[in-house]
Automatic annotation (TrEMBL):
Residues 3-236 form the ABC transporter domain. PROSITE patterns: ABC_TRANSPORTER_1, ABC_TRANSPORTER_2. GO terms for biological process: L-amino acid transport. InterPro entries: AAA+_ATPase, ABC_transporter-like_ATP-bd, ABC_transporter-like_CS, BCAA_Transport_ATP-bd_LivF, P-loop_NTPase. One of its GO terms (molecular function) is ATP binding. It comes from the Bacteria. Keywords: Amino-acid transport, ATP-binding, Nucleotide-binding, Transport. The keyword Transport applies. Pfam families: ABC_tran (PF00005). This is ABC transporter ATP-binding protein. Belongs to the ABC transporter superfamily.
Length: 259
């Protein structure tokens, strides 16, 4: 499944949040969308997911125009958003939060269990804490649950909004390594991150968003090597904390990540 965004403009009242944004993500690839606070990353993801209606432009999934479709109709086309701040039901258990993800799919009990099992293999801690309230999980565990809730829908296109926010570097690596595994299994991934260093380490391509505009788009390797990008988005500390070798180069099949 391919995601194509073309000439997208969007606003919040008088604030113009996106200006003529065009991006493309192929199946099995990760596009890192990097940019500062307020650059327009969330608005872009919301436009793609059907949560915000763009003023102009087009979003298509595998050549089919989905621009402006309501969120449930976009979701039916196997596109899932893992929202910023996780947006879990904190009083519900881990198992019930995963059940929320399965809602409306009309699967048999066996098929539902198989999907939940797959998420448990990916994030064994979620099996261990299956009865625990989501609000009592650590930030990293909550992020795993938020991703798991999307994965039970078996998305072909996955949008991730700041999955690293508030997580310790080791957990960021673990989460992004899982994301790389999903791409290796054929999912098209649009990864919005302020943590540009970590995102570009796992991505194939990157796009820099500034004031709602894409100001650079290139391979992740080229962006990581670029001095301007380095100065503005990677920062010395971020560059130093990044793994030596790109995470993407590690074995990344889902099955290999399960152990
Ligand atoms: N609900 C809203 N009402 C008014 N303005 C908004 C709203 N949401 C976002 N904006 C504005 O739109 C612009 C883009 O915001 P957006 O949240 O998409 O950026 P972002 O890159 O995701 O940043 P952040 O990481 O802070 O969410 C900003 O100027 C922001 O202030």
């Amino acid at each position: 499944m391919t995601l194509s965004i073309s000439g997208l403009h969007a606003s919040h009242g008088a604030t113009r949040a996106l200006r003529d944004v065009s991006l493309h993500v192929e199946s099995g690839r990760i596009l890192a969308l990097v940019g500062a606070n307020g650059a327009g990353k969330s608005t872009l993801l919301h436009c793609v997911a059907g949560l915000h209606r763009p003023d102009q432009g087009q979003v298509s999934l595998h050549g089919k125009d989905v621009t402006g479709l309501p969120v449930h109709q976009v979701a039916q086309r196997k596109l899932c958003l893992v929202p910023a701040g996780r947006q879990l039901f904190s009083d519900l258990s881990v198992a019930d939060n995963l059940r929320v993800g399965l809602h409306g799919l009309k699967l048999s009990g066996t098929a539902e269990r198989a999907r939940v099992d797959r998420v448990h293999k990916l994030f064994p801690i979620l099996r261990e804490f299956t009865g625990r309230k989501a609000g009592l999980l650590s930030g990293g565990q909550q992020q795993m649950l938020a991703i798991g809730r999307a994965l039970v829908r078996e998305p072909a296109v996955l949008l991730l909004d700041e999955p690293s926010l508030g997580l310790a570097p080791m957990l960021v690596t673990q989460i992004l390594r899982t994301v790389a595994g999903l791409a290796a299994d054929g999912v098209a991934i649009l990864l919005a991150e302020q943590n540009a260093a970590a995102a570009l380490q796992v991505a194939d391509h990157g796009a820099v968003l500034e004031n709602g505009r894409v100001t650079r788009a290139d391979t992740a390797t080229a962006l990581l090597a670029d001095e301007d990008i380095s100065r503005h988005y990677l920062g010395k500390a971020a560059a130093e904390s990044a793994p030596d070798a790109p995470v993407r180069r590690l074995p990344a099949g889902l099955s290999s990540l399960a152990h």
